[in-house]
Amino acid sequence: MTESGRSVEPADSEGGTDEWRGDASPSVEAAEITSFVGRAKLISETKSLLRTARLITLFGPGGVGKSRLLRRLSTEHALADGFPDGVWVVELADIPARENLLAAGCADQLGIGDNADGPSEARLIEFFRQRRALLMLDNCEHLIDDVRSGQVPALLTTLLPAAPALTVVTTSRVRLGVSGEHIVKIHPLLPTEALYLLLDRARAAGTAISEPEYPLALRLCEMLDGLPLAIELAAGQLDVMTLREIVDHPELLRLLVDGPYEQHHHRTMHATIKWSYDLLGEREQRMLTLVSIFEGGFDLEAATSVCADNGIDTSDVPSLLKCLVRKSLLLTESASGRTRYRMLELVRRFGLQITATSGMEPEIRTAHAHHFLALASRARKDWFSARQTDLMRQLRAELPNFRAAQVHFLSANRTVGHGITLSVDIGASCAFVYAGVLNDSRRMLTRGLERHPAEPSMGQLAALCLISWMAQIQGSEAAGAAQAEAEDVARQLGCSDSFGPLLYSRGTRLWLAEPDPVRARDSIALMARAEEAFREAGEEGLEFMAALYGAMSTVFLSGPEAAFAASARVLELARAAEAQWCISWAKWTCGLAELLHGDAKAAAAHTQEALQLQLEINDKWGPPWSLWQIALIALRLGDYERGARLLGGARVAQRLTQTSVLGMRPFLLLQQQIESTARQRFGNEFEIQIAVGESLARSMDEVYDLAKEPFAAAEDAPVASQHAEMLTKRELEVAELVAKALTNPAIGQALGISSRTVEKHVENILLKWGLTSRTEIAVRYLRDVAPANG
């Protein structure tokens, strides 16, 4: 098992925060960019402690190497063997202390989608309840208010008892104070280890320290208390200063002070950073303080935007960033073909302190917030294009900065509208649907609405419509309340029949939640009106989404001709835009149309193509849906063992991503129809094979490989028998008597049931076959079902 982390250059120090970002994943085999110095005894002691302890804190001052030690531990093969269900590393530095987002952030990095109602803690418990696993939480201190309080202690106090086979290792500058916590103190490097680190980092910087200089180098290591991060920073100056000049520098001489262990090393680390800062030129210093405003990293475009508003020429930004990288004050990382910059957390805090005391903070935060407001606005306009997946990944990576920007806008009455607009633009881009973190989008929308003034506005209405739509596709009961509030605001604003987002959310709710098939069919016309409204507003992305959802509802609620035409149309629209995420969903819809109205083998081909594309673009929302649909296709084709296993795998995939396919009525009914026949024919073995599929899903790759296998060349079930299988035995009997022109009372008398029960059976037949009248039932039965029954 490997980690999908990003490479970093230059490497992080032995201390400071880790050099990876992105989703956590089981045990890490990532190659280290720089050598790992010392710590053999600590690693051995910690591994030994892991045999008996369930909670270990790697404890020490900033810059001492806690994060690097944690990462090295996570790669130990012997350690991984002791935790067969995975070693999982979660980075907490970017999780803000201002909100209770720890559990959601952990779930996100673990690949557990944040897409359902209910506390994130419950999802973590569900994930780890049956797992013999090791969870590593890096950089906890800002989420600990005091001993035994704060987000980290609260989470572990709940999680550890609920997941009895789980072991947790944390890194922190303060103790957690949780019952059962074992402290492993991380001390500075020994003199020989510190010297080796300095020699290694000097070589990496292009400067060789000769053997006669070793005593001087040892002196420097002593002055720096053997703190790995401090040694990194000092080595970063060797391209412009000699070793003697560094050692003789007055700022470093002041590091040799007495005091308690933690206070002494804190002063040493702070003074080292200040010394490195003081050696920078004026423009370089300004650059460092400006980019410290970013949370979770930043790219060149963001840095240029903030700097341009604060006195740095845009042409100078790349060279200034390179200087900070060379001095080990800034790290680079590559993600999805984009270069991002990140500051070590200790350096970032230093920069923020300077920003706060200089009086520059308001202007910098305003520039930061407006950059991300503009980014969200551009993404909303451009996401339905060949750049779609790149834009979605970029928006996902900037989530910490979007949160910070919204907090800034919502802090003043005059900019509350910007805070709401920011959340609406991000939601309209579908980036957080793609990323499988719908609740993050809903949280931002809700946060904005909480600050909205009493007077209704179009921004408020757009936010409510997005909340309703998102809650509906999550299968959440919150959709009804949000839609009702949106309808009320729309009436006040006089746009109930013309506002695209309202028509879209109203149509989605009608299709997915309305039990009456006749009323549900009105969703098709609503989606068409929404599509037209979006087209007139120049909203190409939302215009496509309305067409897509209109096609899906048409597949369920209309006949074959309309279903095939609508699904083919959305595929044509997506291909014309070269929008890969949209293409995958259009292919999925074509598969759905074939499953309900046509050829199951064609349905398999479409859906397998959709799944392959979703996996290639790292879509977090789509694969569980494609897996579920392929499972139903396998059952429809009579491949009951494979279909049952895929259903089991789909269950696990939905739990991991918190995707509630069966929380939406049409999809629940479809599975019940197809699964009912499979259970009758496959018997008790069906549930056994579902359990086999769930066990396979410990490695989702195995399940997806099974889903992508070509279906055997056995002859398909004829379309006629597929239509018959969609109905229960009793519904087929009712359809036969409808075809004989019997009234409901006559059918009830013939079958020994009430007229009301007959009426419900007729409604179900209309819904399942996508018809509108009894005459159409008679025609379908006589044309498709009766000939197959002889």
Automatic annotation (TrEMBL):
Stored InterPro entries: HTH_77, P-loop_NTPase, Sig_transdc_resp-reg_C-effctor, TPR-like_helical_dom_sf, Tscrpt_reg_LuxR_C, WH-like_DNA-bd_sf
Keywords: Kinase, Serine/threonine-protein kinase, Transferase
Lineage of origin: Bacteria, Bacillati, Actinomycetota, Actinomycetes, Pseudonocardiales
GO molecular function terms noted in the UniProt entry: ADP binding; DNA binding; protein serine/threonine kinase activity
Pfam family, one: HTH_77
Region (Disordered): 1-26
One GO term (biological process): regulation of DNA-templated transcription
Claim: Transcription is one of the keywords in the record: no
Membrane-spanning parts: none
Gene3D superfamilies registered for this protein in UniProt: P-loop containing nucleotide triphosphate hydrolases, Tetratricopeptide repeat domain, Winged helix-like DNA-binding domain superfamily/Winged helix DNA-binding domain
Domain HTH luxR-type: 720-785
Record protein name field: Non-specific serine/threonine protein kinase
